[in-house]
Amino acid sequence: MTLSVAVSGASGYAGGELLRILAAHPDVEITTVTAHANAGQPLIAHQPHLRSLAHLTLEDTTPDILAGHDVVFLALPHGQSGQYTDALKDSALVIDAGADHRLTDPAAWARFYGGDFHEPWAYGVPELAVATGKQRANLVGATRIAAPGCNASTVSLSLAPGVAAGVIDATDLVSVLAVGPSGAGKSLKTNLLASEILGTANPYAVGGTHRHIPEIQQALRGAGADDVRISFTPVLVPMARGILATSTAPIRAGVTDAQLRDAWESAYAGETFVQLLPEGVLPRTADVLGANTALLSLAIDRDANRVVVTAAVDNLVKGTAGAAIQSMNIALGLPEDRALTVNGVAP
Q1: Are 260 and 162 in contact (CB under 8 A)?
Q2: I need a labelling partner for 210 at 20 to 30 A (CA). Which of 52, 83, 235, 237 fits?
Q3: How far apart, in whole angstroms, are the C-alpha atoms of residue 248 and residue 103?
Q4: What is the pLDDT of residue 43?
């Protein structure tokens, strides 16, 4: 059976990436694409790379237009999805690529986002360690899924194996990320103009203010940490896509190098889309461009008594749209890798 799919926010980066992947999915038909200011215009005018979808026209984003589909994807700015999800209670499967349904703590939502708090949904990071094994089990048969924040899932996947195995101290975590500007969306912002970002690197949301911090803390508590304290610093760099996250954590007393490496090897053994690279091999954002893979490396700094995990993802694929579609596949009982690839685009 072919599933009918609606994608809101279809003129943006996340919406466009959802459409690019879904266009190659044999079990779905993209029947409806919606937008706000761009409604009434051809999709191809805003996503000229999606040639196979040139027949689609952007419609208004309203509950009535989104309703009646087998799957609805919401690729809207943070704080805007809730008004639609409340009205889509009869839809079979709704997947939110925004933050509205990620957090379980209303106080964290109020501090980092503000506005109305909405109920948390199943978190769309299948490989993430949780108390009962992997988050994948919570996605089976799910009807409401919150796709992750790209920075949050990258850091969480980097550190969760050490937390779950009890080999690192989660109260002194440090993560520094090089991120591409596509993660900020398609809206015109002066600081994201090419003349402002080419040839420079710019830190932002420093000092514990980034919105993905509570999402990371929530994920790592779910992996078994009693308390999570993290210094999180993103740096905007001149690459359209990609995240390179370097995360460090103190090694617990008595833990051997072999136990450390085994924690990460065991966590991701057999996983298709999260891969631990051989010792001494470091990931590059170029190697995950267009792919649904997270490539990780593990180094052990005994002088500092810290483990160092470096992770590379494409923020629009594994960080957002790929994770959403991977979660959709699991929820619907389809092959998890349907329409998703581990092969990047090079050069």
Answers
A1: yes
A2: 83
A3: 24
A4: 98
Look at the block and give the residue holding tokens 């984003």. Answer: 61
Residue appearing with tokens 């002066």: 190
Residues linked to residue 104 through DSSP beta bridges, in sequence order:
none
Those residues with Cβ within 8 angstroms of residue 150's Cβ, 6 or more apart along the chain or in another chain: 179, 183, 243, 313, 315, 316, 319, 320
Instruction: Please state whether the peptide bond connecting residue 77 to the residue before it is cis, i.e. omega within 30 degrees of 0.
Output: no
Give the chain's residues under pLDDT 70.
none
| Measured distance CA(263)–CA(159) in Å, rounded | 10
Distance CA(121)–CA(96), nearest Å, equals 9
**Which pLDDT score is estimated for 91?**
83
| Chain segment 212-246, per-residue pLDDT in tens | 999 999 999 999 999 999 999 999 999 999 999 99
Q: In sequence order, what are the residues at sequence separation of 6 or more whose Cβ sits closer than 8 angstroms to the Cβ of residue 55?
A: none
Q: Are 205 and 211 in contact (CB under 8 A)?
A: yes
Structure confidence by residue, pLDDT tens digits, 14-71: 999 999 999 999 999 999 999 999 999 999 999 999 999 999 999 999 999 999 999 9
* Rounded distance between C-alpha atoms, residue 15 and residue 74, angstroms: 8
Residue type, 44: I
User: 258 burial class (0-12, 13-18, 19+ CB within 10 angstroms)?
Assistant: exposed
Q: How far is CA 311 from CA 194, 237, 290, 326, in A?
A: 26, 16, 16, 19
Catalytic sites, residue numbers: 150
For 323-346, the DSSP string reads HHHHHHHHHHTS-TTTT--S----
Distance (Å, rounded) from C-alpha 246 to C-alpha 338? 30
**Helix-, strand-, coil-residue percentages of the chain, each rounded to 5:** 30, 25, 45
The predicted structure's pLDDT at residue 218: 98
